[in-house]
Every structure is written in structure tokens, then in C-alpha cells.
Amino acid sequence: MFNIPWHKLPTLLALFKLSRFRDALRENNLHDTSQVPEQDKLPQPVPSPDDKHLVARTADGSYNDLEHPAMGMAGTRLGRNIALKDAKVDTKNLLTPNPRTVSQVLLKRNKFIPATILNLHAASWIQFQTHDWFTHGNNQTDNSFSIPKNGSEDILEVPKTLKDPTRTDDNTDPATFINHVTHWWDASQLYGSDEATINSLRSHQDGKMLIDEAGFLPFDESQGIDLVGFPGSTGSWWTGLSMLHTLFIKEHNTICDRLKQTYSDWNDQQLFDKARLINSALLAKIHTVEWTPAILPNPRTQMAMNINWWGILGKDVKKLVGRLGNGEILSGIIGSNTDHHAAPYYLTEEFVSVYRMHPLIPDEVDFYDHSNGQHLITKQFREIFGKSTRDFMQSVSMEDLFYSFGIQHPGAVTLHNYPNFLRALIKEDGSGAFDLAAVDILRDRERGVPRYNRFRELLGRERVKSFDDITSNPQWVKELREIYNNDIDSVDLMVGLFAEDLPDGFGFSDTAFRVFILMASRRLKSDRFFTEDYRAEIYTKFGLDWIENNTFLSVIRRHHPELAPALYGVENGFQAWRKLT
């Protein structure tokens, strides 16, 4: 029985095994970089003079933990899921094997492989969420890697990741980097991670965010894209992101309207603060109990994610009788005691690595009329990307956009399915083509993330002894052996994750899932606004009810009621919608 993989065990035994995994990961795989010298150069929080930081999220993420107010704020370091002694950069092998060769031979999409368990909103959603969680900021402008193309004089210049400014040149181990947005699950991609950005996005009337009468976000003329809270969006902006940003800015404003009806004496700041709390928590709930079960539709993982939010007794019991105790098992993490476990809360470099899911992106998208299902137009991804996004979105209704994404599949997260558009990305600054797949490989190496086999070991999985242990696909085994010169320990993390045979009902690898087991819970368990301060005194009773009673589908229905026929019978908004004919 105990030699059976956890995901094939009976559900209750599988949940017990997952709980044991998480306990071990919490003990062994949370490592603090904030104390690495020279920590005194890291940003220092400033309390609000009116004590607003006690009951509302701050712009920069400070004062979430009131005893350690700098924890998780913007400008602090990304943590690690591996011991700091293992977070070292192998400078001798940074370009071995050549990342461009890895991209060409192992990652190149020859034929689109769909992820039939999902719709295209799932691809937009995870990028929307990662923009809330982490960014390394703009890369260095005066220092780059030169990656040759085999058998060619073609050289790809890749700017190095921005340095951690608190570190000196002779004090670089372990590798540390700065997160330029807040580490918390606070919808900073919508609102920003500093006061100036937040103020530029607010109407300063009734707590609302800026949006025009036509339903579009403010337009940043200098960048040629929507004005949003995430810094440096130009290089990753596309129609799917714009749709979700717009939808949840509308949701914020609707929450403000409803709050004002109940609390008519509240000022603009009070309405904004409460609406942000409610909207952020709704996003976290959607990700936990809708997006994750959609990409991991295994009954065991679906139950585990629901337990994270509602507890093992379930939603109905929690709604009927409230919380039972302060633990996380019976009534879920939400409203339980705050606990950082083995290290202060920071998102991690390894968390960044396992969320490299670019194969979800298609190279072309079909668009349809939401009222009758008629095909309207097919667009290459580059035509709905970057500075082309706004013009395209003004040519197709928002209802048609949402419907079209709802009935199409993203790509599967696997080898030989990396979007060709992103492997030959034409940068809008005129600097030429850019192979993002090669860059993804290089970034893990540059940032001291272990390669696949060592990564498995450090997360408590057995090392693989041969390429056949990674994948049952004989062609992939042959390609892996050739590219990695028959050295199993040199396989890059992303390549190993994409090559793994997937458990039934999994949209990504079991190895990546180990980090997810740990960090999905941690993003909730460490945040006082999801734990001890998830209460009516902070959110209002209205706010808690709004979070409890809404889903991705209800948000879409509220702002686009015309889509109701396509949503009839749909239970999860990230799975296939009903096609109209």
C-alpha cells in the first residue's frame, strides 16, 4: 500500500499523505534570506499616522505581520525553498548545455498540444496572479549573457537579472534577488505596490478605480498599453491580461457601490480600503477553489484545495456553524491562527520557477460571436499582444472576447509545446528577436535554482537514476540523453518538470506540485488578513458574505450578463464553456 504513489491511494489516505508532505516541507523547505548580510540596507516600513495599517492592507505590503512589519513588503528579498548552502550559482556551467539548443530541440512547439481539461481563461489567470506575487524588476542594462546559436554567428544577448543592491560583490552566496512587488496575496497587480502607483489608478471618489465610460482601463500613452498596478507590464501585456484586469477593476467598483449603500458616511479612503480587502480575498478564493481544481482535476487534489479554504468539514458546515477552533484542519486556513512555520514569510525563487507555464499560451486564437457562436476572426498571438492589445480589444466586444476564451483550450504544460511566438519574440524596442524559452532555462541557472534531480531530492522526492525514470516517452528519452550528454544530473529543472509523466488529473508535474503543496497554503496561512483578521470587524459582514457567495462565474455574469447562455450548466469557469451554434 505504501509503495503506491499518493495520487493513486484512496482519497482519505491520499489526503493524509499530502498532509504529511506539507508538514515535512514546512519544516525543511522554508529558508530565510532576509537575514543574509547586509540586511540593514533592505527597506524599512513606515507606519501610517492614523494607524490605518492595523485594519487595512498597506501600499507596499508592510505591517501585515505587526511584530515584523517589513516582512513581505515590496523591495525585500525572495526567500528560498532550499537550504541557503544549496542556493549557489554554478558559474562554470551557466551555458551548458546551450539554452538555445535546449529550446530548439526540447521545447519548440511543432504542433499545438491542447490542455483539454482547461479553457483559455486558465492561461490568462495564472499570469494575472503571478504578476501579483513576484517580479525581479527590469534587468541590468549594462551586463548580459551572450548565448551563441550552434553552428551560427548569431548571438543572443540576455541582460542579467537585476542585482540585489544590498549585497556586495564579494558577498554573493547564497544567491539573493529582490521582489519588486509585495509578497502578499493582495491584488497588487490591480492596485500597485507603492502609494504613487495606487493614487494614479484611483478616481478618488467613492473608493473607486479609474475606468472609462466605454469600459476600458486608463491608457498609458508612453507605454502603449493599459495603465495597471504591475510594474514593467509592457513586455508581457496581452488581451487575456487586459480582460481580467478590467473585469476585477469593475468588480472593485461594484463592491464600492454596495459598501456605500450600507455605510453611507464612509469616505473615499474607507471605501477603497475595504473594497480592496474584499476583492483581494475573492481573487485568492477563486484561485484556491476554482483555478487550482481546474488544472488539477484529480479528486484528491480537488478535495485538498477545498479543505485549504473551508476545512475538512466543508463549506456547508462552516457556513452553518462557523469556525470550530483555531486550527486549519476542521474549518480551513481561512480564519485560523497565523503561522509562518520555519521562516518569515517571503515568496521564493523556487516558487517562481515552478510557475513557468508558458506552454499554456497558444500561437493563435480564434474569436467568435457570443450570441450565435459564429466565427469572427483568427489572430496570431502577436496581433493581440503588447501595443496591439488595445486596438484589437476595441474591435471585438468584451462579451465576444470572454466567450472565445471560454470555449478554447490553452496548451499543455509539456515538452515540445512552448509557443513559437515566445521563442522568437520581436521586442517592441527594436532590439531584435528574443527566445524566451532559452531565457527561462538561463534564469533558473542564474538564480541558483538547483537542476531537476537535485531539486527533487531537496524537496523530499527520490532522485531519478535514468532518463527513463523521468518520462515513458522513448523519443523524449533519446533527446534528453543527447542534449544532456547522458548526464541525468544536468537536466534543467523546467525541462524535467515538463518531461515528467503526469499523474491522472494533473495539468502539471508532481514535482512542481510539491512546491505548490507548501506555498499555496503558505500564501494564506502567513497572511493575517486571511487568518486572524479574516473577520467582520476588518472586512465587514457584507464583505465576508461577498467573498463567500461569489465565484469567477458569478463575477463574469454580473459584469457581462449577455454571456449567461454560454455559462448554462458550467460549474467551473476555467473549464470548457458551452459552445453556441
What can you tell me about this protein's structure?
By secondary structure, the chain is mainly alpha-helical. The chain contains 22 helices and eight strands. Strands 1-2 form a two-stranded antiparallel ribbon. The longest helix has 28 residues, at 268-295.
User: Could you name the ranges where pLDDT drops below 50 across 5 or more consecutive residues?
Assistant: none
| Main β-sheet description | 2 strands, antiparallel
CATH class group? Mainly Alpha
Number of helices: 22
Radius of gyration (CA) equals: 23 Å
Oligomer: single chain
Strand content: under 5%
Please identify which CATH superfamily we are dealing with: Haem peroxidase domain superfamily, animal type
Shape: globular
SSE run: HHHEEHHEEHHHHHEEHHHEEHHHHHHHHH
Biggest β-sheet: strands ordered side by side in the sheet: 1-2
Q: Summarize the amount of helix as a percent range.
A: 25-40%
CATH architecture title? Orthogonal Bundle
The tally of structural domains comes to 1
Predict the CATH topology. Answer: Myeloperoxidase, subunit C
Summarize the structure.
By secondary structure, this protein is mainly alpha-helical.
Offer a few descriptive terms.
single chain, 581 residues, 22 helices, mainly alpha, two-stranded antiparallel ribbon, 8 strands, Myeloperoxidase, subunit C
SSE inventory with pairings:
Blueprint: H1 11-28, H2 99-107, H3 121-133, E1 144-148, E2 155-159, H4 188-191, H5 195-201, E3 219-220, E4 225-226, H6 239-262, H7 268-295, H8 299-310, H9 314-321, H10 349-354, E5 364-368, E6 375-380, H11 389-393, H12 398-406, H13 420-423, E7 425-426, E8 433-434, H14 436-446, H15 452-458, H16 474-483, H17 493-499, H18 510-525, H19 536-539, H20 541-549, H21 552-559, H22 564-567
Antiparallel strand pairs: 1-2, 3-4, 5-6, 7-8
Helix pairs in contact: 1-8, 1-18, 2-14, 2-16, 3-6, 3-7, 6-7, 7-8, 7-20
